[in-house]
Amino acid sequence: QILDALTAQFNLRSLYVTKLKARDSLTGVMLVGLEEPVPMIDDIELIERVSEPSGIALDNRLLYEENVRIVRQLQETNQQLKEMDASKDEFISMASHQRRTPLTSMKGYVSLVLDGDFGPITDPQRAMLQQAYDSSQRMVYLISDLLNVSRLRTGKFIIINKVTDLARVVEDELAQLVQAAKARNVQFSFSKSDNFPKLMLDEMKIRQVVMNFLDNALYYTPDGGTVKVALTADETSIRYTVTDTGMGVSKEDQKNL
Fold it and tell me: Within 13 Å of residue 16, how many CA atoms lie on the same side as its CB?
C-alpha cells in the first residue's frame, strides 16, 4: 500500500532495489523510484555507485547511535558505582566508629584488672589478660586503618601534629607484642640514638605505622628468629628500621612496595 501510494504520488513507473553494504555486511536496502518503465543502464550504474557510500554513511550513523547508547549506559553505570562507593565508605566509617567504642570499654576494664584495681591476680591470669588486652589494642588499630582508608577516599584525612616522643611510642608498641613474641620464641631488640629528639608528629597515626611494621615482622619471622628495631637521628633525618629474620620480600615484588 505504501509503495502504491508513493508510485501514484510521484508518477513512478518502476522501482529499483539495491543492497547497502559496509564492512562486508548488509546494513540496509535502498529503493529508487523511476519514471521509466524499465531502468536505463546508466541509471542502474549510477544507483549502484551511490549505494556504496550510502551503505557506509548508514553504517556510520548506526555506529554513532550505538556508541551514544553505550556511552550513556556507561555514564549511568559509573554514577551508580560512585553512589555505591560512597555508601560503602559511609558504612565503613559508621561501622568502625561503632566497633571502636565497645573495644575501648573492654580495654579499659582489662587494664583495670591488670593494674590490680580489683584485687591481686596470678601470673598465668596476668599473661592471659595481657594477651586479651594486646589483641583488643590490635583490633583498635585495624579499625583505625579502616577509618583512615575511608577518610583518604573522601578527602577527610587530617594530620594533627604535636610534640611526640617517638622513642616512647616505639617502646609502647613493642611492649604490646612481648607476650606474642614469647609464645613464638621470637626475640625483639630495640636500640636508639643517644638524646633522641622530640618530633612534630600525629601520634595516633604514627603509632599505626610503627605497629604495622612490628606486627608484620613478628608474623613473618619463624619461631626462634629475631627482630631488630632501631631509631636513628642525624642532622637531616630520622630513621625507623625494623629488620627480621623472616623470608623477606622477593625482588620481583619489591617494586610494588
Answer: 21
pLDDT tens-place string over residues 131-166: 788 778 777 777 777 777 767 766 667 788 999 999
Count other Cβ atoms within 10 Å, centred on residue 207.
Answer: 21
What is the rounded CA–CA span in Å between residue 146 and residue 7? 74
pLDDT tens, residue by residue, 94-106: 666 666 677 777 8
The Cα 135–Cα 103 span in angstroms is 10
Summarised one tens digit per residue, pLDDT across range 225-256 is: 999 999 999 888 999 999 999 988 888 898 88
Task: Tell me how far the alpha carbon of residue 224 is from its chain's centroid.
Answer: 36
Phi, psi of 37 (to 5 degrees): -65, -30
User: For the purposes of burial, counting CB atoms within 10 Å of the CB of 26, is it exposed (0-12), middle (13-18) or buried (19 or more)?
Assistant: exposed
For the record, the C-alpha cell of 69 comes out as 547508547
Asked if residues 163 and 198 have their Cβ atoms less than 8 Å apart, the reply is yes
Q: Are 200 and 140 in contact (CB under 8 A)?
A: no
Cβ–Cβ < 8 Å for 241, 230:
yes
SS3 for 12-57, per residue?
Answer: CCEEEEEEEEECCEEEEEEEEEECCCCCCHHHHHHHHHHHHHHHHH
Instruction: Say which amino acid occupies 116.
Output: G
